[in-house]
Structures
1.
Amino acid sequence: MNKKSKGRLAVDWKRKGRQYASLNFPWSRNESAWGSLQIPIIVIANGEGPFVLLVGGNHGDEYEGPLALSNLARELEVERVSGTICIVPALNYPALKAGTRLSPIDGLNMNRAFLGRAEGSITEQIAHFVEVELIGRADAVLDIHAGGRTMMFQPFAVSHQLPDVVQTSRAREALIAFGAPIGLILEELDNEGMLDTAVEREGKLFLSTELGGGGSTTAATIKLAYDGAHNFLVHTGVYRAAVKAPPVPVAIMKNESDGYVSASTSGFIEFTRELGEVIEAGELIARIHDFDNLHNEPLPVTAPVTGTLLGRHFGGYAYKGDFLAMFASPED
Ligand SMILES: [Zn+2]
């Protein structure tokens, strides 16, 4: 943490108005000896007030955040801002261009690289800069995720159950304000190294999402990301505007570790139920086919708990151990 970052960001944090900048890191490679990696950053500042950080493209195969946040970056009106809005629409920019979850440069998962390392590989350098220079300044952070190429979700916003009661209830208020049809109080499978954890550890407000998936977007999921990010800015007090009302009331749900299903064998997946359906524990949700042994009946996969099917594997084939499904239930 004491090492100086190699990242360079030419932004005047005090200057009123909109600045299109880039966060630059040295990137020497066969194709460009003295080249640099340039990650776009937009800063909209207007006097005193909270510092709110909006992030998209943390994973490179999730496009709602990058598209919605770049639209928002151009459309927000400076005069309505009180404080600073910092937008990073394409955090893992090389991965976003490659359409991959992980960085094509060093193979790392940005969302497992926090706190990062100033002297590390390029993903670790980006994480370190964001941690020190952006999260360090921020009062509130929104990180927009989606299912990517291998998952599909019934769209939801995410907050976490945290040790601090006040911090948990602040996150829950933001979860409702975001306005996604479902607000999930999520139990993460593996939260070490996440941007979420980096923000929450400092006692700051953090909100995330899982919208759509399949490595692409829909008009509805982009609108959800755009309206939700707008509402998050209004909720934190950094932007004065009318809230964009959600089409349906926000349903608060929770999940637990027993609501996840992974593939117990490799094969072709036939889902028998749809996302968003309420399913009883023990009911069939999918069958796994082994085309090399067609005489065998496909392996049945059943719901481990009673709940709403919020997430599923995307793609025709799954390997043993792959994520298959996720269930959540209404909060008590
Ligand atoms: Zn993601």
2.
Amino acid sequence: MLKINNVKKNFGGLKAVNNASMHVKKGSITGLIGPNGAGKTTLFNVIAGNLQSDSGEVVLNDEKISGLKSYELFYKGVLRTFQIAHEFTSLTVLENLMMVPGNQFGENLLYSWFKNSVVKKQEEKIRAKAIEVINFLNLTHLTQEVAGNLSGGQKKLLELGRTMMVDAKLVLLDEVGAGVNRTLLNEISDAIIRLNKEKDYTFFVIEHDMDLIEKICDPVIVMAEGSVLFQGSFDEVKSNEDVIEAYLGRGMKPKEALNS
Ligand SMILES: Nc1ncnc2c1ncn2[C@@H]1O[C@H](COP(=O)(O)OP(=O)(O)O)[C@@H](O)[C@H]1O
Ligand SMILES: [Mg+2]
């Protein structure tokens, strides 16, 4: 579904992404791991249209998408979440979700003045969709809570919810597990698995939490120093010498590295 061919991205003299090539199969939940600074987030930024690569290409279903802006990718069903959640803190959970779909008639001043039935109908449709998403994610009790009051994990669930307001096909998740407690982490991983199975989402997941990777990801791609070091099942990754070495090289014990 997604092919990354020889992508390079430098920051000054630093080769953040250095000739990275990999692909994500349709219907998979593919993991992307690697030591801090390996280039994972930079690669996501390139895929999602938040950064322009220096060379190489990104292909979605045989269509070249490199250089497209994030809103153009949005309409192709490619969405991402951020390492730091991007919610509107003073809006409620419901309002945050209702903000997502673009091209709302209500945003057009002329339509707003007339307040005609088209606008109201569309608003009702979006509200119903948002409530469906809230229920799917077991956030019903928080529907009218302002997003700023949510816990870190609840914010991550809300981010996931934003991808459900449109017909997402490929969702890029950057560290959904960071700073999230075990209970919510399980809810997040269950939601990911359900979206994958019930709604046909393909996921590409950056994550440091190896329990989450083990539970939901196959295959797992390992990046180090801007390139792909290894790809395989979680068990293969765990026992691969090069992978252990890459984490060790960053001053981590293998157990810490692959179980932190
Ligand atoms: N906007 C930027 N400007 C300069 N250097 C950056 C920028 N973003 C990332 N880097 C550097 O690029 C390298 C890869 O970073 P990143 O993609 O965030 O890695 P990861 O997500 O795997 O931890 C790191 O050395 C980081 O410091
Ligand atoms: Mg990162």
